[in-house]
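Example protein as discussed:

>
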Amino acid sequence: MFKSLFRSKQQPERAASTDGRLLYAIGDVHGRLDLLDGLVERMTEDFRTLGRQDQPVLIMLGDYIDRGPQSAAVIDRLIDLRQQSAEGRFEFRALMGNHEETLLHFLDDPMAGPSWVEYGGGETLASYGVRRPVGRAEPEAWEQTRLAFREAFPPTHETFLRQLELSVVYGDYVFVHAGVRPGLPLERQVAADLLWIRNEFLDNPHGLDATVVHGHTPVEQVFLGRRRINVDTGAYATGVLTAVRLDGGEPTIIQFSKARAA
């Protein structure tokens, strides 16, 4: 469900520092490889037009899988981007989302499956060639599904997901998947909040001396606030994937859109 309370676009009161770095942060992909590829191409062109010679930073904000049809291919693409970054073309940072955490839980516990498929895990199973149990399946059926999924799930994908970060900081910007617990310094934040928090963060000042850049809660328009920026535009449902470019001036929104396949 889209968070309509924050649908209007707002401009920050002041520009936050990036410590001289050029940052691009991409919102929730949710199995839409077509949108990810299109947005990366658009950001590459944006970087060319800036005429800068320094190394940009690409930050992925989590929720790469579920709901959309191409979760396995999205993970392949992210691994490829990480490999490209190792060649010195750009810096690559990938955060964990709550959907990645749930997939990892299912690899170890079959009873994480029923709740996972309720919010998109079935599409991820299908992208790896695994069929979900039909109806109200018994625990034995979920265990068979878990075993089939573990067999189909490449070790490189598991390694990539288990190495995802919970937060990254550049200058005056903190990047997390969902948000932060208001009133706590970053070093005291726990994974459950960074991956899952919603209204407590969205409806209250977080108290950090930073601008928090996040996804997790889809909005109809990008939210640009003085203390937080939300770039999750519900790509799996809207066909719009969003990134924000941060360079010490006003944030610049970059989007790629494509109609969702029937």
